[in-house]
Specification:
CATH architecture of the largest domain in chain A: 3-Layer(aba) Sandwich
CATH topology of chain B: MetI-like fold
CATH superfamily of the largest domain in chain A: P-loop containing nucleotide triphosphate hydrolases
Distance between the termini of chain B: 42 Å
Number of strands of chain A: 20
Helix content of chain A: 10-25%
CATH class of the largest domain in chain A: Alpha Beta
CATH class of chain B: Mainly Alpha
Keywords (chain B): Cell membrane, Membrane, Transmembrane, Transmembrane helix, Transport
Number of strands of chain B: 0
Strand order of the largest sheet of chain A: 6-7-8-3-9-10
Number of helices of chain B: 11
Order of helices and strands of chain A: EEEHEEEHHHEHEHEEHHEEEEEEEEEE
Distance between the termini of chain A: 35 Å
GO biological process, one term (chain B): transmembrane transport
Radius of gyration of chain B: 22 Å
Largest sheet of chain A: 6 strands, mixed
CATH architecture of chain B: Orthogonal Bundle
Protein name (chain B): ABC transporter permease
Oligomer: heterodimer
Number of helices of chain A: 8
Number of domains of chain B: 1
InterPro entries (chain B): Bact_Polyamine_Transport, MetI-like, MetI-like_sf
Membrane topology (chain B): Multi-pass membrane protein
């Protein structure tokens, strides 16, 4: 329903967007994820109509939106700071888009009440925004943006001002709300956890380009570049050289560590002698004093370099060779003292040949 | 030791306030004095206020003052709002200097230069010339007040309005203007008090029949400080204080309205 073709934008000498192409389907919860300055907010502002691209097209249901002012686009935005009108009550705020569209007064009242019910704040109609909590303001901002039933809802880091508990609750509410209303959501965030939790698909952006576009699990398990692997979650990145490979497996020499066999994802091909990166998520690494290596597992010896107790899990940084640290997670599920390690302990680490994912280095 | 310092501070500030307000207090007290001389307290009377309201010259001057202040404050509110918005939006370096120069410039310079301008343009000196002159120095106060208000206003509010279907004009009239209103009103009230109190600029730009209260008081004082002068000064003081208080109220309200 939304198609973005070859969008570029420069601010002075800074290239905010360098030829972005995107296709977003109807009813999708789509996230633009990236560090600050990656161009995600600029792209969102272009879809809303606040910025014009230097080149490229933005097609909404086949119609080019470039040049159409924001008020004439069937697209509404939830702003980072909510942008509720401070001199209007909650009801007046929600009624505003309907008044602009010249909806009949009695219909406005009914739809405002309906919108308030949808966000579970039926009795806040007469309150002023200043009297609301952060979470309530957030809900009113969403209610206001949805009341006119836009074709597309844009959300610009809407949860960044909330505390952690509230944020999790709002994430669940957002998922449910999107399912209920069936409107396409485009969500901008720099928080990878939020993106993974909410989205059907995620476009990871870096330096004005889309680095990878995929479903959350694909993105997490099969990053296509060092940047994506590093940006999404915690990840061990081990440099390696391919010593042998066939269609399904590759034998690698991990630099300074040793040989290892990995299975290849369908899209990945490597050739002998090629340099590459092995990405290993910390939770996929087994760690113990004496491991009985299983079939298809590689194991190495190391020393505990650092420990980080986080309550539910403990993070161990294991030194495999001089200066090479491997991060492993251990769930604190039982009271096995034997499964806890201190700095300096000798341990063994192991992982399955399908646990790692290979990224070809240019 | 800290306590000693506090006492000195109290003493010093009391002295300053006495110096500032005692003369004003004396004017007020003697306006109720039942004697033609400002020498000793004889008894309480309201008769000087009665004399004031029988004095046709004084009444004409008061009417002129109110007329001039109302007109200049209204026009300054309009132009000052535009100037204040431009100062905050466009970030032109020269604009604030141009708008605020009449505020900072010595009144006498402003008065003389406006007088020369009016003569050159063949504008006869009267109510119109005084109003034009007052507008020049009033704009700056409204502009400053509006600019401060613009500074505290979140730009995304306007974007949100546009996003939700408002045209640029609707966004201005429904969002920008109501949010700027306290700043505009505060600025206009300030402008009104400055206009009603102004002597120097008015002195140069007023003609026959356009005498204002400050000019009228001055011409009376040249002969003697009569209790009638005390009475009109007291009234002027009350009006000014009232308006200034009101203006600061509006500013405070303005700040509370923002999130």
């Amino acid at each position: 329903m939304l198609e973005i073709r070859g969008i570029s934008k420069k601010f002075g000498d800074f290239e905010a967007l360098k030829g972005v192409d995107l296709h977003i389907g109807a009813g999708e919860f789509f996230t633009l994820l990236g560090p600050s300055g990656c161009g995600k907010t600029t792209l969102l502002r272009m879809i809303a109509g606040f910025e014009a691209p230097d080149s490229g097209e933005i097609l909404l249901e086949g119609k080019d939106m470039v040049g159409t002012p924001p008020e004439q686009r069937p697209v509404h935005t939830v702003f980072q700071n909510y942008a509720l009108f401070p001199h209007m009550t909650v009801a007046q705020n929600i009624a505003f888009p309907l008044q602009m569209a010249r909806v009949q007064a009695d219909e406005i009242d009914a739809r405002v009440q309906q919108a308030l019910d949808n966000v579970h704040l039926p009795d806040k109609a007469g309150a002023y925004p200043a009297a609301l909590s952060g979470g309530q303001r957030q809900r009113i901002a969403i209610a206001r943006a949805l009341v006119k039933r836009p074709r597309l809802l844009l959300l610009d880091e809407p949860l960044s001002a909330l505390d952690a508990k509230m944020r999790e609750q709002m994430q669940i509410e957002l998922i449910n709300l999107q399912k209920e209303v069936g409107i396409t959501f485009i969500y901008v965030t720099h928080d990878q956890g939020e993106a993974l939790a909410l989205s059907h698909r995620i476009a990871v952006m870096n330096q004005g380009k889309i680095a990878q576009l995929d479903q959350p699990a694909q993105l997490y398990n099969h990053p296509n570049s060092r940047f994506v692997a590093d940006f999404i979650g915690q990840c061990n990145l081990l440099e390696a050289t391919v010593t042998d490979s066939d269609r399904h497996h590759a034998d690698l020499e991990l630099h300074h560590i040793g040989p290892v066999r990995v299975s290849l994802a369908p899209a990945v091909t490597v050739t002998k002698g090629q340099r590459c990166l092995l990405t290993l998520r910390p939770e996929k690494i087994r760690i113990a004093r004496n491991l009985h290596a299983l079939v298809d597992e590689t194991h190495f010896c190391g020393k505990i370099h650092d420990t980080l107790y986080l309550g539910d899990v403990t993070v161990y940084k294991v030194e495999l060779a001089q200066g090479i640290l491997l991060e492993a997670l251990l769930a604190n599920s039982g009271n096995h003292a034997s499964e806890r390690f201190a700095v300096g302990d000798s341990v063994e680490v192991a992982w399955n040949s399908s646990a790692g994912h290979l990224i070809a280095e240019p | 030791m800290a306590r000693g310092r506090m006492n000195w501070l109290k003493l010093f500030s009391t002295a300053v306030f006495v110096f500032l307000y005692l003369p004003l207090l004396i004017v007020v007290v003697y306006s109720f004095n039942d004697s033609k001389l400002n020498a000793e307290w004889v008894g309480f009377t309201l008769k000087w206020y009665g004399v004031l309201f029988d004095d046709t010259e004084m009444l004409t001057a008061a009417r002129n003052s109110l007329l001039i202040a109302t007109f200049s404050a209204a026009v300054a509110a309009l132009l000052g709002t535009l100037a204040g918005m431009a100062m905050s939006r466009l970030r032109l370096r020269l604009l604030p200097a141009l708008v605020l120069a009449p505020v900072a410039m010595p009144d006498i310079l402003l008065g003389v230069s406006l007088l020369i301008l009016f003569i050159m343009l063949n504008i006869s000196l009267g109510l119109v010339s005084v109003i034009l002159a007052h507008i020049t120095f009033c704009i700056g106060y409204v502009a400053l007040s509006v600019q401060a208000r613009m500074g505290s206003m979140d730009d995304s509010l306007i974007e949100a309005a546009r996003d939700l279907g408002a045209s640029p004009w609707q966004a201005f009239s429904r969002i920008t203007l109501p949010l700027l209103a306290p700043g505009i009103i505060a600025g206009a009230l300030m402008a009104f008090t400055l206009s009603i109190d102004d002597f120097v600029v008015t002195f140069f730009t007023a003609g026959v029949g356009s005498s204002t209260l400050p000019l009228q008081i001055y011409s009376m004082v040249k002969i003697a400080v009569t209790p009638e002068v005390n009475a009109i000064s007291t009234l002027l003081m009350v009006v000014t204080l009232l308006l200034v208080t009101l203006a600061s109220r509006f500013n405070k309200h303005a700040l509370r309205g923002t999130i």
